[in-house]
């Protein structure tokens, strides 16, 4: 369930980023860029949360 919510939030935040940047630059909204950024954000977040940033057990 965490991965699903991560993907949803990644998509929403990516859409916001792409919309604002393309609007400021005078281009049209590009859904392909939104999906690419969302997939990248999701993968990085899942990799970091499941592997790299795991809590170490107390010794």
Structural account:
It is a single chain. The chain is mostly helical. It contains 2 helices and no strands. α1 crosses α2. The longest helix has 24 residues, at 2-25. It starts with a helix and ends in a 7-residue tail after the last helix. The model has no long low-confidence stretch (mean pLDDT 89). Pfam families: DUF2929. Keywords: Membrane, Transmembrane, Transmembrane helix. InterPro entries: DUF2929. The chain crosses the membrane at residues 7-29, 35-53. This is DUF2929 family protein.
Low-confidence stretches: none
Report the structural category. mainly alpha
Rg over CA atoms, rounded to whole Å, is 15 Å
Shape: elongated
Number of strands: 0
Percent in strands: under 5%
Largest sheet properties: none
SSE ordering: HH
N- to C-terminal distance: 30 Å
| Tally of DSSP helical segments | 2
The helix content is over 70%
What's the mean pLDDT score?
A: 89
């Amino acid at each position: 369930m965490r991965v699903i919510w991560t993907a949803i939030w990644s998509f929403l935040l990516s859409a916001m980023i792409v919309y604002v940047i393309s609007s400021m630059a005078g281009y049209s909204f590009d859904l392909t860029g939104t999906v690419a950024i969302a997939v990248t954000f999701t993968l990085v977040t899942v990799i970091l949360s499941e592997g790299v940033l795991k809590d170490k057990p107390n010794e």
